[in-house]
Amino acid sequence: MFKLTINEIVKAVNGYSKNIKNDNISIEKVVIDDHEVEKNCAFIAIVGKKFDGHNFCENAIKKGAYLLIVEKEIKNFPQIIVKNTTKAFLDIAALNKKKFKGKLTGVTGSVGKTTTKDMLGQILEQSFKTLRTYKNLNNEFGLSKTVLNLDETYKAAVVEMGMSNLGEISALSKTCQPDIGIITNIGVSHLEFLKTRENILKAKLEILDGMKKNTPLILNGDDDFLKNLNIKDHKITLCGIKNNMNLYRAKNIKQILLSTVYDLYKKDKFLTQITLPTIGEHNVLNSLLSIAAAELYSVSIEKIKEALKNFVPSGMRQNIYTINEIIVIADFYNASPDSMKASIKTLSKIPSKGRKIAVLGSMLELGDISKTEHQKIGEFAVKNNVDFLYCYGEETKEMVLGANEEKEKQQKNCTIKHFNTKKDLICCLKENIMAQDVILFKASLKMNFEEIFNAVLSF
User: Fold this and answer.
1) Where are any strands of DSSP class E within 245-404?
2) Which residues pair with 416 in a beta bridge?
C-alpha cells in the first residue's frame, strides 16, 4: 500500500474526522479484520448482515490501530466518521490505485475470468512484479484488499471482478480503474437474479464505468453478445477461434495427451505455436484473451509462449491428475451450463482405453431455467459419449431425466444414475472405477464435491 495521509483519506471517503491531532500522518495499512490489525494501521468497521465491525473496534485499538473508520462515533479515539464503511473501503482502495504508475487489467465475464486472470498474471510475472487477485476474491471486499496491496514496487496488476446483480461491477470498476478491460463471455450464470442474458451483458459492461476514454477493451469474439458490440471511446480487440473478425485467433487446435497445442495468429499473420498444459477450447479462448492483454504490456511473444506452457490453474478449477492409472479431472469450483459443457467436452476428448465417467453435481443460481438447463446437460453428456453419468444433488434429477431421454433416442449403452447421498456415490465409485478410466468431478462450490474427490483419491 502507498502511504496515504489521514487528510487524503478523509477527502476520499467524504467523511469527517474526530479526535485527530495531525491529519498529515500517513497510514500504511488498512484492514477490515481486527485479527489483521498492526500498529499504526486503520481499522474499518464494516457493517454486514450478520455482524457489525463496530463491535471489534475495542480489540482493534488494543492491538495498536491508530485510526478507526466508522459509521457511529467511538468515544475518545482518532476516527473518521462516514455514512457507509463498505463504500469507504472501496474509496480508499480507489485512492491507492490512483497512485499506481503501472497498468491494471480488470477481468470479468460469466465463466473463465479466474483462469484468464491467472494466465495473464503468470505471463506478466515473467517480466514485472505483478499483483493479481488471490484465488477468486472478486467481490467488493476481495477486490479492495487486492488493490490496497499495490505499492511502488509493482509494475502490473490483474484483478478479477465478479457480481450477482446490476451495479456491482460498476462499483468495482470505479475502485480499481482498469487501464485494460477483459470480458470473457456472456453466459447464463446468475440468471436467478438478472433474469436475461441482456441484463448480464449490461452488468458486465459496467466494467467501462471505471475506465478512462480510449482504454482498450478485449472481448470474446466468438460470443454472440460480444462479437458485434460497438462501444464508443474504447478500442475493441476481439479474440477467439471461430469468428474471422477476431484479431487474435487460434487455428489448428490439437490435443496431445493432456495438453493443447494451437497456432496463434494476429490478423492473418502467424505468430507462434502455443502449448497449454490444459485441455478444452475454453482454455484456448482464455489464453487468447490473456495474450491480447499481455501484448499491451509489451511482453514478447517468446515470454508469453513460455509462461503459458508452464501455466498452473489456481484453486479448485480444472486440474487433471493421474492416480493409480486413473485420469481424474477435478473441477468443482463453479458450475454453469457453459462451464459444465466445456468440462464434459474435455472428458470426452481425453485419450484413454478406459471408460469416461462424469460425476456431476447441481448448478446453482439458475433461477427459472434451472430445470431445463440441467436436462440439457444430461442430454449433452450422452451426446458426448459418456459411459457413466453419476449425479448428486436435488437439481441433478433433471439431468438424469434428460440423459435417459437422449439415451433412448440414440440407443446408447451408458449407465445413468442419481445418488441421494455422497456416501452412496463414493461407495459406487470405489467399487467400479478401474485403471485407465477417466473421471470428471464437476459441481457448484456449495455442493462440496471436494469431499467426494478426496475420497476417490484415497482409494
Assistant:
1) 248-256, 259-266, 269-276, 319-323, 326-331, 356-361, 388-392
2) 389
Residue 325 and residue 302 share a domain: no
Residue 415 burial (C-beta neighbours within 10 Å; 0-12, 13-18, 19+): middle
- pLDDT tens-digit readout, 34-72: 999 998 899 999 998 888 999 999 999 999 999 999 999
Residues 6+ apart with CB under 8 A from 83: 14, 15, 71
Which CATH number fits the domain that encloses residue 293?
3.40.1190.10
Evaluate if residue 249 carries a pLDDT over 80. yes
- The span from the CA of 435 to the CA of 326, in Å, is 5
Q: Are residues 104 and 81 part of one domain?
A: no
Distance from C-alpha of 380 to C-alpha of 373, rounded to nearest angstrom: 10
Under a CB-based contact definition with an 8 Å cutoff, are residues 327 and 321 in contact?
A: yes
Domain with 71 in it:
4-90
Enter the pTM of the model.
0.83
356: confidence class by pLDDT, cuts 50, 70, 90 = very high
Strands 248-256 and 259-266: antiparallel
Nearby residues of 23 by Cβ (< 8 Å), 6 or more positions away: 5, 6, 7, 10, 17
Residue 421, classified by CB atoms within 10 Å of its CB into exposed (0-12), middle (13-18) or buried (19+), is: exposed
Asked whether residue 163 falls in the same domain as residue 275, the answer is: yes
